[in-house]
Design a protein that fits this description.
CATH architecture of the largest domain: 3-Layer(aba) Sandwich
Strand content: 25-35%
Number of strands: 13
Largest sheet: 6 strands, mixed
Shape: elongated
Helix content: 25-40%
Radius of gyration: 23 Å
Length: about 300
């Protein structure tokens, strides 16, 4: 059996003179959580809509390795009927997804209870908070038990408890063999959730793979931030894979195999005086900022 649920092969899409995607290729492993990341305007939403069949690519193709495959989508924009009762809205969308009314209503009650919203079933959507409305949209996307779930900014409007609830639900889907693809700006959530990541920038694939493989591609084990008095000659030290300057600070990126202790010893031996130093494992956010900055610097 093919281990991938989806194969995206050299997909290109333009809107008049704007090239939204250019020769994008990747695979989505089945029974996994796949993250699509990138800055605004990078092509994430266009890619999601192509995967869902809402728009067609100009070139390339998308292949699902399993058919039939139940697909569900949580859009970034809210599309709830504000003047209708919560349970009625959930039941209506459940019917649109092929469930009979009795089953849709029963499952809707179960999901409302799961998200601690059972007391709100007969209240109007407009009475709910932004975070609770986001949970209702997620319930609607889950009610038909999809094999492939596409989520566009699923954590929007959620408080920390709500985020934890959603994360638990998504991990539960993965354990049941479901495949989840999510697009988010929340790097910390992606880092905690995703098995595989895809970084888009200006419509092209910049990085893809597991976090470990991305560390190898970018070269990030530790991030060392020093005061502006730290000389940029530090870039020549063994193990330093990159450098950037921002807000009167210099940030150095040490490769995954670099020795932090050896680097600090070398700084000491060279007699370099650093007035302030902070050290942290390189985060996903830092890796992606580094990769995008380097790419755009090269292009410009």
């Amino acid at each position: 059996m093919n281990e991938n649920l989806i194969e995206v092969i050299s997909v290109t899409k333009s809107f008049r003179s704007l090239k939204a995607l250019h020769k994008v290729s990747f695979s989505v492993p089945r029974s996994s959580i796949f993250g699509v990341l990138g800055p605004n305007g990078s092509g994430k939403t266009t890619l999601l809509r192509i995967l869902l069949g809402l728009i067609t690519p100009d070139e390339g193709k998308v292949k699902f390795q399993r058919e039939p495959c139940r697909v569900s989508y949580l859009p970034e924009e809210r599309g709830l009927y504000q003047d209708l009762e919560v349970l009625r809205v959930i039941t209506y969308f459940g019917e649109l997804k092929g469930l009979n009314r009795c089953t849709a209503r029963k499952l809707g009650k179960e999901w409302l209870d799961r998200f601690d919203l059972s007391l709100w079933g007969h209240r109007k959507i407009q009475e709910l908070s932004k975070g609770s409305q986001q949970k209702i949209q997620l319930i609607i996307s889950l009610i038909n038990d999809p094999d492939f779930l596409v989520l566009d900014e699923p954590f929007s409007g959620l408080d920390p408890l709500g985020v934890r609830e959603v994360i638990d639900v998504l991990l539960g889907l993965k354990r049941r063999g479901k495949t989840v693809l999510l697009s988010t700006h929340q790097m910390a959530h992606a880092e905690a959730l995703c098995d595989t990541l895809l970084l888009l920038d200006r419509g092209e694939v910049l990085l893809s793979g597991s976090r470990a493989s991305i560390l190898q591609q970018v070269g990030g084990g530790y991030t060392v931030t020093v005061s502006d008095t730290g000389p940029e000659s530090l870039i020549a030290f063994p193990g330093v894979s990159g450098i950037s300057r921002n807000d009167q600070k210099i940030t150095l990126y040490l490769g995954e195999n670099a020795s932090l202790l050896d680097f600090l010893n070398l700084v000491y031996q060279k007699g370099i005086s650093l007035t302030a130093v902070s050290i942290a494992p390189t985060s996903l956010d830092t890796l992606f900022v580094k990769a995008i900055t380097e790419r755009r610097g090269w292009q410009n």
